[in-house]
Specification:
It is a single chain. The chain contains six helices and three strands. With 187 residues, it is mainly alpha-helical. The protein has a three-stranded mixed beta sheet, with helices on one face. The model has no long low-confidence stretch (mean pLDDT 82).
């Protein structure tokens, strides 16, 4: 994976590991499968211990809050910290951090930890006057939440309440009489 650190994420890496383990299982060699699974476990424990040490060192140094915030805000690092049970923020805070990073502002309308469902509401428009791309916003939310808050297993977009109709209040239409009625009805 040398040189690919910019493209690797937890989901892709996990999928690749599963594919390799599946290929080994398909080979029919149970000894190789067991050895590969043990290797994955040992590496996970090793990297988890290393990450725990990094977090201890960063958290113990005064003035390291900016570094800690940068680490917690990085999708790859955050996903590894969550995977190893080392992320210092609770699920609610990690969800908020993930949603704050979306291009389209959304509002957390509620998270049910029992079902893993997060309800979101689009706030405002995307700035183009064409409304929001609900499917795009939902996918972007799913992608970032997979890194920051894997407890969220489903995203449900709530439709925003319709905005009130614009009521134009201004001067009377051209040709209206002084009392505001058109000449045809003023008789």
């Amino acid at each position: 994976m040398s040189g690919t650190h910019g493209t690797v994420n937890a989901e892709t890496a996990g999928r690749l590991v599963e594919e390799v383990l599946d290929r080994l299982a398909a080979s029919g060699d149970p000894t190789a499968c067991e050895a590969a699974e043990e290797l994955v476990r040992v590496l996970m424990e090793f990297y988890g211990a290393g990450l725990a040490r990094v977090m201890d060192l960063v958290e113990s140094h005064p003035g390291a809050s900016a570094a800690l915030d940068a680490l917690l805000g990085d999708e790859l690092v955050a996903s590894l910290l969550v995977l190893h049970g080392l992320h210092p923020e609770d699920a609610r805070t990690r969800i908020a951090r993930a949603l704050d990073g979306l291009a389209q502002p959304v509002e957390n309308a509620g998270f049910d930890p029992a079902t893993g469902v997060l309800r979101l509401r689009v706030v405002g428009s995307g700035g183009c006057g064409c409304g929001s791309g609900g499917a795009g916003v939902e996918q972007a939310a799913r992608d970032t939440l997979a890194c920051f808050a894997p407890e969220v297993t489903s995203v449900a977009m709530e439709t925003p309440a319709p905005e009130p109709a614009l009521l134009q209040i201004g001067s009377a239409p051209p040709g209206a009489g002084t009392d505001g009625r058109s000449p045809a009805t003023a008789r």
